[in-house]
Design a protein that fits this description.
This protein has a single domain, classed as Aminopeptidase. By secondary structure, it is an alpha+beta fold. Helix content is about 35%, strand content about 30%. An eight-stranded mixed beta sheet has the order 1-2-3-4-5-6-8-7, sandwiched between helices. The radius of gyration is 16 Å and the shape is globular.
Length: about 200
């Protein structure tokens, strides 16, 4: 999978990206979100990176996790679309930014717009969903800006409950995106799908 916006490249991870991903996920600010010490954080990051690489080899491919790179080639974060096993027309959208890029709202807008457009127009999805915590106000702001609507609230994992937060589900449909003014305000969308792995089988 390889997408381009006007300022960023979203592409499949390669082995030589591992060190940069692990480095930003070991940042104390990042680890603090999940109450991980350095050893736990390193193990979690390596495990996730291995999973991202395995997903690329799956046939059919239903999970897409890409690195977000700026014009200099620096890794700014990652984003994903993970198709649900019980409903192959629905995928879960996720995004995270490296701590050095926190607060770069336009970066997040570019990436989310590209992923939504790719999901509906290339992967042929009918629904894209996202889940986040009530404490993550940045993601809530982004979800509402794009027109996602809240569909459920529930108790989340231990680290959320420890902070008094809940987990929220957000939903966007293909029809809602097709008529959204957020799609037509010049936000970057994928210029092309550069390899066959960007196609959902």
């Amino acid at each position: 999978m390889h997408l381009r916006t006007s300022r960023f490249t979203l592409r499949d991870f390669r082995e030589d990206d591992r060190a940069e991903l692990v480095a930003y996920q070991l940042d104390p600010r990042y680890r603090g979100l999940y109450d991980l010490d350095e050893d736990q954080g390193r193990a979690k990051s390596d495990e996730l990176f291995d999973l991202f690489l395995r997903w690329q080899a799956e046939t059919p491919r239903n999970n897409f996790q890409v690195g977000v790179f700026d014009a200099s080639g620096r890794l700014c974060g990652c984003a994903g679309l993970r198709v649900r096993a019980d409903d192959t027309r629905t995928a879960v959208l996720g995004i995270e930014l490296a701590p050095a890029c926190w607060g770069r709202y336009r970066l997040a807008l570019d990436v989310i717009a590209a992923m939504i457009e790719h999901g509906f127009t290339v992967l042929g999805l009918d629904v894209i969903v996202n889940d986040t915590s009530t404490g993550n106000k940045r993601v809530e702001k982004l979800a509402r800006w794009f027109g996602f609507w809240e569909t459920a609230r529930r108790d989340g994992p231990d680290w959320m409950r420890a902070r008094g937060w809940q987990e929220i589900d957000w939903t966007m449909t293909r029809d809602a995106w097709a008529t959204s003014d957020r799609r037509t305000r010049g936000l970057p969308t994928p210029s092309s799908a550069s390899d066959e792995t960007s196609q959902k089988s």
